[in-house]
Amino acid sequence: MSNNHVEVHEANGAAFRYAPDHFFKSQPSASYIANEEQYRQMYDQSINDPETFYGNLAKEYLHWDKPFAKVKSGSLEKGDIAWFLQGELNACYNCVDRHAFANPNKVALISEPDEESEAYSITFQELLEKVCKVAGVLQSWGVKKGDTVAVYLPMTPEAVIAMLAIARIGAVHSVVFAGFSAGSLKDRVVDAGCKVVITCDEAKRGGKTINTKKIVDEGLNGVQSVSHILVFKRTGNPAVNMTPGRDFYWDEACAHQRSYIPCVSTNAEDPLFLLYTSGSTGQPKGVVHTVGGYLLNSALSTRFVFDLHPEDVFFTAGDVGWITGHTYALYGPLSLGTATIIFESTPAYPDYGRYWRIVSKWKATHFYVAPTAMRLIKKVGEQEIDKYDISSLRVLGSVGEPIQPDLWEWYNEKIGHNNCCIVDTYWQTESGAHLITPLAGVFPTKAGAASLPFFGIAPAIIDPNTGKELEGNDVSGVLAVKSTWPSMARSVFNDHQRYIDTYLKPFAGYYFTGDNAARDNDGYYWIRGRADDVVNVSGHRLSTNEIETVLDEHDGVSECACIGVNDDLTGQAVIAFLSLKEGACDISDEHVFMGFKKSLVMEVRGSIGPFASPKAIIVVDDLPKTRSGKIMRRVLRKIASNEAEQIGDLSTMANAECIPRILSAVDNQF
Ligand code: WT7
Predict the structure, then answer these.
(1) For 129, 171, 484, 523, which has the most beta carbons within 10 A of its beta carbon?
(2) Cβ < 6 Å from ligand 1: which residues?
(3) Of 583, 603, 511, whose CA–CA distance to 183 is shortest?
């Protein structure tokens, strides 16, 4: 705990940062929330009288086919949470149709493909037609309400169109990030029992071609549930394999469809999508989000956190393969009828000016990205920024990992020119939308703090040792939430018990986030990284346990332990420690040893995806263990972080003699 006290103390020193005048001057119209006092009033009502608060907002922000009979029910104790009971609506109608009817020619999607010169935009009317055609194809293949459909596509408008088409017919989308391997895709398709997969022939990223369809074919080998694959021609390479009767090209299949088909009404509590995410143990979980509550909080958080107005242009640089892309590239902006930029490439392609050319070309008003991208630009691409006029920006968002105060300052100055509001938004796949976050222009923030809870979120800091909630300010511990909120995940697909065990059991009556946090003097929240074996690499959540499972399966590996260490560029990086089986590899022969390590990395890339590759593999003769045989990861963490002198209590360790050898193995590595 001594460390934690230092952290709260440091946080207390941070100054309040107020929204710059320029932010207010450049708003298209008045703020939706006038000031801090109004936030406090609204917040209090959201906690004390959620029925009135959310009942009114749900009617104001969403179109309901049938009104709801009751705003909320269920409890964290029972894990039976439901919102907007008996209400019926369609997510696609709310994101597309109603805007196409009111403003058919308003831009909905802006496509920035890998090849910069091929950018284009489409209107709400065009989006409606494209979505209807894909929805018609799915219906013709027998996809019905409640069926799951996988989407394995790069960050193209077609990914958004596919998701909306699935939602339109009441089916459930399960987007699998297109950087996942064939094996990971298979696990997810099988777990969700997907009937159809929507993908493309090949993908383009950073000038490279990725053989997406081939990966899909490999992943679906032997998978019975999938009857059809819809293949968007991204490159049009005629050599791509198509299985007759199963695989159909998007343009050909859509050509036979009508440009309008009606939406299928769904119950507010029907699932809208599954999104698989890693936890500390076991297989990835299919987190279940439901239509009504998820959509409402997507709209509300996009509106209030970003101060998003209909004429704005929102640029979320994240991928639809992750929750950020779901909520803030698609459902949030589109539910509000606002244009959203769909960016397929990388911040470095064709050069480090790419983000800023996009901002200046489309006059983006909002930019939302993970700190890892900013660290990269700060390190190698800073000279590009001032070449472009990015003065259209009004709000800059940060997401996915803690943003260090100095990076916050850099973001504010270099990108925002001290003219923007910075919102460091803390949330998770499971929360569906922001949990703790500044509201642009509403209350002051602090560099590096997620600041105050969003509406409906009652945060609690819990002492992990006693399980007791710590009251008052100036406390640190693990972060939980003691209220329910509309967009919280309702379940883990096909495994409700796992939902309860993971999120609701650790502290009875609370939703457990898995993160460490502090609440400072002013009641502001500071997120301090994960409290479990999840590492956050470039804003991607990885389970060290999952990587260990892959490495353990390698013939030469006897035992292994993966840990996260701080990394200047990627936030955290994975380091794998392993001991080898006798004769597995002659590590004194550098060439042989390099080849061996490479084969291990290839295993991880092949079974999970390239982004999960360990940064270093360190071979030791023994891993530190307790007397009962448990690997002591905290010891490895300290050694790998160069903090061996703070290793702490080793009285439970059975084999302390291995420590000097691990230290020297680490020294040799770096
Ligand atoms: C985990 C959730 C949230 C969308 C992208 C990641 C970490 C997220 C912040 C932030 C500090 C953050 C937490 C959280 N995290 N945002 N602003 N400050 N940490 O979603 O993959 O579900 O990961 O990301 O550790 O639990 P995810």
Answers:
(1) 171
(2) 277, 322-324, 398-402, 424-429, 450, 513-515, 527, 530, 536, 539, 541
(3) 603
Q: What is the secondary structure of 118-168 as a DSSP string?
A: G-EEEEHHHHHHHHHHHHHHHHHTT--TT-EEEE---SSHHHHHHHHHHHH
- How many beta carbons lie within 10 A of that of residue 236, not counting itself? 10
Strands (E) in 447-497, as ranges, are 459-462, 469-470, 475-481, 491-492
| The one-letter amino acid at 17 | R
Q: For strands 271-277 and 172-175, give the pairing.
A: parallel
Give CA–CA dist 339/348, Å, rounded: 24
Q: Are 204 and 154 in contact (CB under 8 A)?
A: yes
> What's the rounded Cα separation, in Å, for the pair 527 and 476?
10
CA distance 196 to 232: 14
DSSP state of 377: I
pLDDT tens string 616-649: 999 999 999 888 788 888 899 999 988 888 888 7
Q: What is the pLDDT of residues 408-448, one digit of tens each?
A: 999 999 999 999 999 999 999 999 999 999 999 999 999 99
Residue 542 CA to ligand 1 centre (angstroms): 11
Q: What angle do CA 217, 223, 228 make, to 5 degrees?
A: 65
CB 343 within 8 A of CB 359: no
DSSP SS3 for 406: helix
Q: Point out the ligand 1 atom lying closest to the alpha carbon of residue 398.
A: 17
DSSP letter at 325 equals: I
The answer, yes or no, to whether the previous bond of 333 is cis (omega within 30 of 0) is no
Nearest CA to ligand 1 atom 10: 426
Give me 284's structure tokens.
């990835």
Length of the chain equals 670
Contact (Cβ atoms closer than 8 angstroms) between residue 65 and residue 59: no
Nearest in space to 278 (alpha carbons), one of 322, 325, 318: 322
